[in-house]
Amino acid sequence: MLDASPISEISQFNSARLSEGARQYAAKSFRSGTRRQYATALKQWLQWRGLMDLEPANAIDVANFLAELATAGKSISTLRTAIAALRAGHAAKGWSFDTSAPPIRLVMRGIANADYRLPEQVEPLRGSTLAGILAAIAEGNPSPRDLRDAAVLAIGYAFALRRSEVVGLDFQLLGQGKQRGTGVLSLAPATIQITFAISKTSRGMSEVVSVPRDELTLAASAIEAWLVAAGVEPGQPVFQRVSKAGKIQGRLSAQTVAAIVKTRIAKHSRSKNGAQSCFAEFEAARFSGHSLRVGFCVSAAEAGADIRSIASVTRHRSMIMPARYSQRADQLRASPHRLAGVGLKAPGGKE
């Protein structure tokens, strides 16, 4: 039976010469979440084929497998993960696997045509809205949890971070042992800087992003206020859990970032619009932890930033996503509907 442990089947290269230590490191070439997803997909494949161990797959069998998953209601993204897992499993065994073989390609296209859906997009947390949230927290009588939440939002937006990157930050230097983070936050008089030791796009290379402190005064103040209140020392996690009693204990979880975004959006909605609780919660549900990253991209594109400057912060290796944000902003900013005689405005510009 295949082993779904951290040294999973996708990393157990079919070579007697590869040492146990080498296999341990090979397993780490895939991030833990990816390993879990691939192990689950491969287990489903083995059960469907009635196999005890991975064997070379043919395209017809894979196409039938994908069709059965789709019929059972699995999403396109789940099917794509299954294909990627099979490719990785075959590569680990030293076998070839053609993911673009006609049966696989045509079945996937047919599934996409039969079960088309609108893309799921989170609501961006724009800079203008976030500035209001940070100012409101600073002007009140903030608790340690308030200060932490403000700093989480400020850092996540300013550096367009993923949730795991937000909570993986250590202060000034990387920590040690199990509490070791994946990046380092550093504050200087003119800049705020993050050095990423490892990330989704780093491919084993460290990355450094610096942002101008004089353009992020609200963010800098929020970050410093939290660091002081929590007494964060060099090498400790920047963001930590805060109990209801105000006790600071251990690194924050990635899931909590999403909860912070939703909670602060709901509170902002109630204070700004006098909205009832149910309406504020409904509005907040459109946001997630990813809203910070998307919010920076959208805000930058709408302000006229070029895609390469956006990518220098987001660390996108491809310009495809920054270009999409820029295109959407251009559609509104340079819309031909704004030209005289093209739009459908009421006379005098009134509704």
Q: Can you name the CATH architecture of the largest domain?
A: Orthogonal Bundle
Q: How many angstroms separate the termini?
A: 68 Å
Domain unit count: 2
Instruction: Write down the overall mean pLDDT.
Output: 86
What is the CATH superfamily label of the largest domain?
A: Intergrase catalytic core
Shape descriptor reads globular
Count of extended strands: 6
Assembly level: single chain
Which sheet architecture does the biggest sheet show?
Answer: 4 strands, mixed
Derived from helix and strand composition plus strand pairing, the structural class reads alpha+beta
Helical run tally: 14
| Helix-strand topology string | HHHHHHHHEEEEHEEHHHHH
CATH topology type of the largest domain: hpI Integrase, Chain A
Q: What is the CATH class of the largest domain?
A: Mainly Alpha
Q: Could you estimate the helical fraction of the residues in percent?
A: 40-55%
Based on CA atoms alone, the radius of gyration comes out at 24 Å
Q: Which regions contain 5 or more consecutive residues with pLDDT less than 50?
A: 1-16
Spatial order of the strands in the main sheet? 1-2-3-4
